[in-house]
Structure formats: C-alpha cells, structure tokens
Write a structure and sequence with these properties.
- Strands 1, 2, 4, 5, 7, 9, 11, 13, 14 and 16 form a 10-stranded mixed β-sheet that branches. The chain has a 6-stranded parallel β-sheet with strand order 3-6-8-10-12-15, with no helix packed on it.
- The N and C termini lie far apart (about 90 Å).
- It has one domain.
- The chain is mostly beta strands.
- It has 1 helix and 16 strands.
C-alpha cells in the first residue's frame, strides 16, 4: 500500500503539515521497499525500507523498520531505524529503536527510547554565519626582501 495524499498530515507527526501545500506519501505496513527514496514532500513509513531516504519530513511509524541513511529537515522515529540520521530536528519517541549516528540541530529523546550511536550537534545556520564572520581575517604574508651582507 503506497499512496500519496494531498495536504494531509502524518498521523504520528503531531497533527499538522510541516509546510503548507506539501504532500504526504505513506508506505503501508504491508510494503517492503529495497532501494532509495527521494521526495520533496513528507513521508510516513509504516512498512520496511532497505535503502537511503531523502525527504522534507519523515515519520517512522511504530511498526516500521528502516535500514539505511536518512536525510530530512525533520525526523520523528517511533519504530526501528538502523543507519545514520542527518536532520535539523530529530525526535525519538519512547518506542523508537535507533542504531546509528545522529547529526542534528535539535534533538528530543523520550524516556524509553533506545539509541546506540554517536550524537553530533551541528550549529544552526545563523550561528555558523556568525562564527564565520567572527573569525579573524588573516592578511596574506607580506613579501620580505633580504639583502645579502657583503
């Protein structure tokens, strides 16, 4: 069961769409996908995926099992994910089981969630710009003339 719903919100994702006009793609509990998934919209996965996922917002349902790398603006995990997560906002629900490194800007872990891996905090974009602006500008080395003693 693979369907795309217009202007719908993930049932486990807090009841609202991450951005207006976006579409929700749902991978049902009876579906197994082997291969990468790329979409500009939102995804809810209740089945199995063996491959990398790139999307705007990802909700991993309680019965879902994902093996692969995930890249999204927002990720909410209720099921099992074995692989790296690269996201601005990551939420691990109490039923989540994650094995892999998480690169995040903000992270929420509910009591009872299982996590095995490294947490890597990335600086917010505004902070990265401020840090770069605060770095001292090094002038190129001046040319030096050495006169030989006679």
């Amino acid at each position: 069961m693979l369907r795309k719903l217009a202007n719908a919100a993930p049932s486990l994702g807090g009841g609202h769409s991450a951005r207006s006009g976006s579409h929700l793609s749902v991978i049902g509990p009876d579906v197994r996908i082997v291969g990468d998934i790329i979409t500009q919209g939102e995804m809810q996965i209740d089945g199995q995926v063996e491959g990398d996922i790139t999307c705007q917002t990802l909700v991993v349902g309680e019965g879902a099992r994902i093996t692969g790398e995930v890249s999204a603006d927002s990720v909410r995990v209720h099921g099992t994910l074995d692989g790296k997560i690269n996201s601005n906002t990551v939420t691990l629900a109490k039923s989540a089981k994650v094995v892999g490194d998480i690169t995040h800007e903000t992270l929420e872990i509910e009591a009872g969630a299982h996590l095995e891996g490294h947490l890597i905090r990335k600086a917010p974009q505004a902070a990265q710009t401020a840090i770069a602006a605060a770095q001292p500008k090094l002038a190129p080395p001046a040319e030096m003339q050495v006169e030989a003693a006679q």
